[in-house]
């Protein structure tokens, strides 16, 4: 099961993300007015997240991996979380403010349009934050630690690269930008001792980006 999990997370998911990106960009090249039904996309995304978590859970069982969910909410961990959110949102805002053309990625096609879409978007953000942290910063990171003889930075970097390529739907530029973000989440796991704090920060970041910059992203 651990081999199957690794193949899916390191090859299968990046391939599907790249294929989705290619299909949407092909439609854009034909100057088609793309109107995607958002709620079905969010539901599909959540189902995929649940499948990945199931694979990760059984992979962890096979490898007898101990994945710590509870975090220590200390001044250091909370301060690091606030700093991370501040910097991440600042970078997101700076990027959108100085963008002179539509993003190369597809994020502007995926953000919610209606109140109903926004409710499903928030639910999807909760699912994504908790599932992705368990899958990438939990099980995958454990496997990378085994692979790299417990070299933390090497394991975190490899996990972050795989995580970034799993978000290939957002485009090549986004893949590069996501890697340091992922490393930041690994750092939060390190200082807090568990996955719960980065799960919360991940959720807050996803929601705040849409609330603060969602309209700007669509208008670029």
Describe this structure in words.
The chain has one domain. The protein contains eight helices and no strands. The chain has 220 residues and is mainly α. Helix 2 packs parallel to helix 5 and helix 7 packs antiparallel against helix 8.
Order of helices and strands: HHHHHHHH
Query: Which stretches are poorly predicted, pLDDT < 50 over at least 5 residues?
Result: none
Q: Count of helical segments?
A: 8
Rg over CA atoms, rounded to whole Å, is: 17 Å
Percent in strands: under 5%
- Number of domains as seen in the coordinates: 1
Tell me the major beta sheet: none
Structural class: mainly alpha
End-to-end distance: 43 Å
Helix proportion? over 70%
What's the overall geometry? globular
Mean pLDDT: 86
Number of E-type strands = 0
Short description:
This protein is mostly helical.
Task: Lay out the secondary structure.
Blueprint: H1 2-29, H2 38-63, H3 75-97, H4 107-110, H5 115-147, H6 152-165, H7 172-192, H8 196-219
Keywords, separated by commas or semicolons:
220 residues, mainly alpha, 8 helices, globular
């Amino acid at each position: 099961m651990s081999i199957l999990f690794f193949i899916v997370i390191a090859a299968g998911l990046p391939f599907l993300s790249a294929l989705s990106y290619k299909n949407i960009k092909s439609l854009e090249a034909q100057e088609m007015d793309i109107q995607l039904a958002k709620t079905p996309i969010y539901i599909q995304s959540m189902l995929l997240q649940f499948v990945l978590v199931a694979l990760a859970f059984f992979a962890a069982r096979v490898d007898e991996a101990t994945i710590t969910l509870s975090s220590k909410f200390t001044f250091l961990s909370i301060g690091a979380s606030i700093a991370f959110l501040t910097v991440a949102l600042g970078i997101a805002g700076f990027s959108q403010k100085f963008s002179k053309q539509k993003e190369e990625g597809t994020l502007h096609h995926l953000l919610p349009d209606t109140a109903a879409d926004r409710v499903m978007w928030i639910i999807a953000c909760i699912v994504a934050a908790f599932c992705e942290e368990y899958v990438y910063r939990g099980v995958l990171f454990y496997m990378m630690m085994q692979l790299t003889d417990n070299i933390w930075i090497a394991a975190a970097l490899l996990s972050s690269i795989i995580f970034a390529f799993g978000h290939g739907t957002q485009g090549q530029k986004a893949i590069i930008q996501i890697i340091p973000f992922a490393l930041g989440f690994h750092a939060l796991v390190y200082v807090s001792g568990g996955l719960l704090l980065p799960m919360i920060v991940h959720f807050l970041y996803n929601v705040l980006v849409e609330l603060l910059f969602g309209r700007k992203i669509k208008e670029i």
